[in-house]
Amino acid sequence: MMEAKPKRRIVTENGDTGEDLVLATLIGNGDDVGPLVRHAFEMGRPEPLVHQLKNVAKKKEAEIEDLCKTHYEEFIVAVDELRGVLVDAEELKSDLASDNFRLQEVGSALLVKLEELLESYAIKKNVTEAIKMSKICVQALELCVKCNGFISEGQFYHALKTMDLIEKSYLKLIPLKVLKLVIERRIPVIKSHIEKKVCSQFNEWLVHIRSSSKNIGQTAIGLTASARQREEEMLERQRRAEEQNTGGLGELAYTLDVEDSEQDSVLKFDLTPLYRAYHIHTILGVPERFRDYYYENRLLQLKSDLQISYAQPFVESYQTFLAQIAGYFIVEDRVIRTAGDFLLADQVETMWETAISKIVAILENQFARMDSPTHLLLVKDYVTLLGTTLRQYGYEVGPVLDALDKSRDKYHELLLEECRRQIVTAITEDSYQQMVIKKEADYENNVLSFNLQTSDIMPAFTYIAPFSSMVPDVCRIIRSYIKGSVDYLSYGVNTNFFSVLRKYLDKILIDVLNEVILETINNNSIGVSQAMQIAANISFLEKACDYFIRHAAQLCGIPSRSVEKPQASLAAKVVLKTSRDEAYLALLNVVNTKLDEFMKLTENVNWITEEMPQGPHEYINEVVIYLETVMSTAQQILPMDALYKVGVGAVEHISNSIVSTFLSDSIKRFNANAVSAINHDLRVIENFADERYHSSGLNEIYKEGSFRSYLVEARQLINLLSSSQPENFMNPVIRERNYNTLDYKKVATICDKFKDSPDGIFGSLANRNTKLTAKKKSMDMLKKRLKEFN
């Protein structure tokens, strides 16, 4: 065949426009004329384009005619060849018909065999289906048997999983309706049976876990107590290091820390029955019902545990009661941490609020009933251990600690009363004799332990302490009070409780110790030695106040240097100092009373004697001996300032006694001989005062206030009465120099009683001389001028 490639020609006719040529060129080149068509319609002028297309079509038809004319011969050849092909096709058709006939003959036999084969396949299919259905029934029955075995063995989880497999994978496939119906009816019965068995096992676990809660709580609290003991031992080592100045520790805060992992490893209790029961109820599709059942039963158990028996004293049952509560909430914490979403935090919070309100009410009630600080402290310690233990598990124990804080005053009242009895016993049973210490150990226990030493040098033994046994006894009582107070205040609401402790320490020192001492001082039966020893004891108790505040600071974990400042001292120290002054006054009153008994000037002195005295009266020797004894004892026991006060008070009282005797209404008159006798007595006292003032070393301390200076009023009065010119008293210069302590009225009263003449009937005629007459005139002039002055 010849192939002729048409040549592209552009036919132009007369009258063709430029647009026709462009369109013809595009079509001839095979380009897309779509844009032209779209543009013509968008412009609203399709008619010109249609006209142009028609022109192009006419031109193409002309080209086709030209082409056909050119290839006419080739077309004739092609038609002849096509006729030859038709002949060959007829021959092929005849051959096919012949082959088909022969195939039909051969295939008939095969078709019969095919039908037989298909029938065999159908039978095989039915048999296979029957075997499959039988296997399903057998497998379902085997699973049922297996499920029964799990139930009998108590493996309820596996039994439920097996039933779930039967329901989902086999029940719909079982062809036997009878078998299917039986299985469908038994499944709910079996599930109900499993649920009852699981609940029964869970109820047994509830009983068991409740009975185990006490041991769980006791174990946990014991671990907390051990940790607290380790902490206290560490604090003790820190205190000792601070006391030995081995390093600056600063203010340290210690908190009790017990690792949860440690407690979890020790607190072993089995929650498997709970997990199993919850898991099985989850598989049964009723997890909410089981959660509610658990919560309601545990809440009932809690309410039962919160009931206490009033038949048994609380002090005997509080540990069991609190340990049971601790164990209960430790179990609940383990449940909420390990059982997923089984227990809600709000539910545990509700249970805890129920427990905390009941515990607080019980504690407040029981604390109000208690009358022993020891019992209250025991309960408080265990409650703080409970709080520390449960705080580690995230429970808010603030209300419990607040209840303890509210009972703080009650505890200290009981402790104060107990210490009051001990202090009263220590003071009333005191011998008021200086303590004799024979061994170094006793010195350390009774002196060094409370910083009562007067020297840093260890004394030789036997050592006579300046205080009596009451002082170390009272110090031990106060120390035990501080320890008891710290024991109650520690591990409570306030971690920095030193200020509170200080208040209670001042209270026992002021309201108890000081009051008991004052009662003893004001007792009329107190003697000189007792009053003197009490005054000495008070001075050492003042000194012990510094030890008390340091000891309290150490127990509170506060550095000693922070309480060594003057402004940090106890208020009781000032109060005791005032009581010490009271003791000095009581001592002086006893001494003065005894001096009055010895002196009795109205009885021991002949105020109108006619004989000139040759020396002092006998009573004055007893006075000096008594004063010597008092001052010697005081010098051994009392500090120098107290010794000075005793000496000054005694001689001043003697001076006042002499002056008051002259003023006494019982002395109606006296003469110069009586004045001379008193002068001898006064000189003995003055000599004693000077000797004791210098021998005791007081002259080195009180240089401007000797004992003699406190006899000045009596001396000036005697000098005035003995003076040859007593009227000089009215001379301001002389009076200021020689009689400045004498009062006008007193002098006037005494001078009125001065009668310098004997009582005899002829007294005015005897022993008269010019000197006496001049003195009498001077005295009369003084009396006259005093009357005028008054």
UniProtKB/TrEMBL annotation:
* Family label: Belongs to the SEC15 family.
Source organism phylogeny: Eukaryota, Viridiplantae, Streptophyta, Embryophyta, Tracheophyta
Fetch the Gene3D superfamilies from UniProt: Dsl1p vesicle tethering complex, Tip20p subunit, domain D, Exocyst complex subunit Sec15 C-terminal domain, N-terminal subdomain
Keyword Transport (UniProt): yes
Name assigned to this protein: Exocyst complex component
**Keyword Coiled coil tagged:** yes
Q: Which Pfam families match?
A: EXOC6_Sec15_N (PF20651), Sec15_C (PF04091)
Domain Exocyst complex subunit EXOC6/Sec15 C-terminal as annotated: residue spans = 401-753
Organism of origin: Camelina sativa
Q: Which InterPro entries match?
A: EXOC6/Sec15, EXOC6/Sec15_C, EXOC6/Sec15_C_dom1, EXOC6_Sec15_N, EXOC6PINT-1/Sec15/Tip20_C_dom2
Question: What is the gene called?
Answer: LOC104712325
Keywords attached to this Swiss-Prot or TrEMBL record, sorted alphabetically, are: Coiled coil, Exocytosis, Transport
Function per UniProt: Component of the exocyst complex involved in the docking of exocytic vesicles with fusion sites on the plasma membrane.
Where do the Exocyst complex component EXOC6/Sec15 N-terminal domain residues begin and end?
52-221
